[in-house]
Amino acid sequence: MTARVASATVEAVDLELDRAFRISRGETTRTTNHLVTVTDSAGRTGLGGAAPSAYYGEDAASVAAALPALCSAIEGVDPRAGQTVERRLVETAPEEAAARAAVSVAVADLAARQMGEPLYRRYGLDPGRAPVTSVTVGIDEPERMADRARGWVAAGYPALKVKLGTDADRERLRAVRDGAPEARIRVDANGDWSPDQAVEALSWLDDLGVELLEQPVPADDHAGLRRVTEAAPMPVAADESCVTASDVPAVADAVDVVVVKLMKCGGVRPARRQIATARAHGLDAMLGCMVETSASIAGAAHLAPLAAYADLDGALLLAADPCAGPSLDGGRIDIEGVEAGTGARRR
Question: What pLDDT was estimated at residue 192?
Fold first, then answer.
């Protein structure tokens, strides 16, 4: 007999970052995530987390308000009935993607634990296909960005994502490259450049060995994205321009890669759908994240074999992670070491 969802609990966790994290839109030193624990009638549990972004119209208060109803919506449901779970979540809180993602990941974790297998195996994925995750160097003074880059590389991480969108971007990226001459470097402007600025930057980005350019122009400027992509010697990715699977067709001829985040699309099933839609349009996918605990990073990690790129370092930016998940040591996403579920647990 199927063990159905018996209860779900929510806990808010206030998180301090290991250092101030700045992108073109602002700076963060603290954030609040919500952890969701789903329990079945046999006492087994699944863990998920919500990390909302104000850019997408969510915050800690909206997540806290949405989660009780979302938790009630999945009571009595078979955790393995993913279509039913997703439908109930969307019907209950259609505008709260991060809150839905927390419940989605928790239920997916529980379903795989019930089956006694890791989540990636439920989807028939090859853990050896997971790409290396990048780790982020936020905007700071050039010498501090160089120090951060050196620190990540010394810790064994080979790929860096460098945040830009300032009046001294070239100087900052040069400092990072000088600090980490062997690193693979990706750049994320978070939509701060105009198309003219982005096209002008392409030559020095290429000179400094940038392997991927993420969201160079504002989210709604698809023509600008297309112009940059056509001129770029490296792949160009859409993040803010491509929130869910339904956004993929509009950017399909404008970029090479779409960035898929559980927190913006609403969970594990929507993320798989967005990746599949991207592939159907001839695009690669990058799995990304917000600043979040391993409770939710773990859910995305099990989809990594579907993606060409990964940027799942959100928990690595925290001063202390209240959860543990699959190892990301050296940038390697070690989901093969997970015995059952996502591998996430409370410390």
Answer: 97
pLDDT digit string (tens) for 13-71? 999 999 999 999 899 999 999 999 999 999 999 999 999 999 999 999 999 999 999 99
Radius of gyration over every alpha carbon of the chain, rounded to an integer in angstroms: 19
- Which of 182, 21, 5, 11 lies closest to 109 in space, CA to CA? 5
End-to-end CA separation in angstroms for the chain: 31
170 with 162: CB under 8 angstroms?
no
Nearest partner of 109 among 321, 318, 300, judged by Cα: 300
Query: Is the pTM of the predicted complex or chain greater than 0.85?
Result: yes
Q: How far is CA 300 from CA 95, 133, 146, 173, in A?
A: 20, 12, 29, 28
Read off the pLDDT of residues 248-281 as tens digits, 9 standing for 90 and up: 999 999 999 999 999 999 999 999 999 999 999 9
Q: Which amino acid is residue 74, in one-letter code?
A: I
Q: How far apart are CA 78 and CA 203, in angstroms?
A: 54
Only one residue has tokens 């966790």, namely 13
pLDDT in tens, 168-219: 999 999 999 999 999 999 999 999 999 999 999 999 999 999 999 999 999 9
Please state, in angstroms and as integers, the Cα–Cα distance from residue 49 to each residue in 42, 92, 219, 303, following that order.
22, 18, 26, 16
Contact (CB, 8 A) for 48 and 36:
yes
For Cα atoms 61, 66, 70, give the angle at the middle one, nearest 5 degrees: 150
- Would you list the DSSP string of 259-294? EE-HHHHTSHHHHHHHHHHHHHTT-EEEE---S--H
